[in-house]
Amino acid sequence: MKVRLIVNPNAGAGRARDGIPSVVAAFARAGESCEVAETARPRHAAELLRQAASDGVELIAAMGGDGTLNEVAQAYLDEGGNPVIGPQLGVVPFGTGGDFRRSFGLSHDIDEAVKRMLTSEPRSLDLGFARLHDDDGQVCSHAFINVGSFGISGVVSRLVNRGPKWMGGKTTFYLASVRGTLGYRNQPVRLTVDGKVVYEGPTYLAAFANARYFGGGMRIAPDADPGDGVFECIVIGDVSLAGAFSLSSKIYKGTHLQMDKVHTFRGRHFTASPLYTSERVSLELDGENPGHLPLDVSVVPGAVTLRA
After folding, report:
1. pTM, whole model, 2 decimals?
2. Can you name the residues that pair with 282 across neighbouring β-strands?
3. pLDDT tens digits for 231-246?
4. Which domains are present in the chain?
């Protein structure tokens, strides 16, 4: 098998750069050679994956965090949201958040990640395709592999991405959540699922979940299946400040779905827009901040073949 490691050397507060020899050695112990390609700028990972496909690479090992996986995901869809055939995808966790890996029970053990990549049965993985408005107000498109969301999560992810990450994923996201929640005002939005208006009103958080975790270990969608062709949509409505803080611990445990003001939906196509045009509602996709509402999200079934 022709394997190429795509590395974000800055992932994990720079730990990924130092970990490259260990990953290459782990592949050697497993009986496979491994080429290495390092990202050098934003969105470079998608370019490297497209080049790998042209070079006949059969398996990409994405080494980094959820942001690295998000960049890689861009190469599996074209500008219209249609699947693009590419190498199979494996994961070597080395980032701050590590939410995608949690849905598959992947630890930070390098040898375990490599072994599962080389020996596990390939499985079909869905992607999300989003149309949104960037920070300049221009319509753009973006793929995501894990969870897309808006509301407080858009604020928190901006704080995380602008701040230091040496404390690790859970602590970094928790502190950003506290800081963001203290100054947050619930945003009035309209949400549709598969063409039907399902929610209108003030919103603390809304998530479109392909997998189960986001925000540094929050189990936002305990029932999500990344290969079933639908997304779980979780809406937390007009909660108070005290209610938001009490919900936090329950989301980490995945016990929040039955609580008051928490609404759940399933579907293949979602839209979200502010009820008032003056409102600017920030969103995040896999922890990245491509822009704000209005938002249009579609599920792209089986866009990636995953080995994990």
Report:
1. 0.92
2. 292
3. 999 999 999 999 988 8
4. 3-126 (3.40.50.10330), 127-302 (2.60.200.40)
